[in-house]
Amino acid sequence: MSVKYVDGREVADEETLGQRLLSVRKAQGLNQSEMAHSVGLSYRSYRAYETGDRDPAFYPMVEIVRVYKLDAEWFLFGDQGRSANVEKDK
What we know:
Mean pLDDT: 80
Distance between the termini: 23 Å
CATH architecture: Orthogonal Bundle
CATH superfamily: lambda repressor-like DNA-binding domains
CATH class: Mainly Alpha
Strand content: 5-15%
Radius of gyration: 13 Å
CATH topology: 434 Repressor (Amino-terminal Domain)
Structural class: mainly alpha
Order of helices and strands: EEHHHHH
Number of strands: 2
């Protein structure tokens, strides 16, 4: 499993959205404050999203997908969500 970018690059994947946020941040070489600033979030909000203490709002997640050119379906739902959608379509 891996972080999926629009251009096809892949890095390590995780199960929760917070873990995927962490994976993307680490792949970019950023600390939490830098990641938060890059998408217009406060440090406290970003940290709460990454640790799972708070459910993220829609717009910041869209910004993260846009700024870091991520595969939106993977980022929002993970590989399990992708598999569920593939099964549903059959």
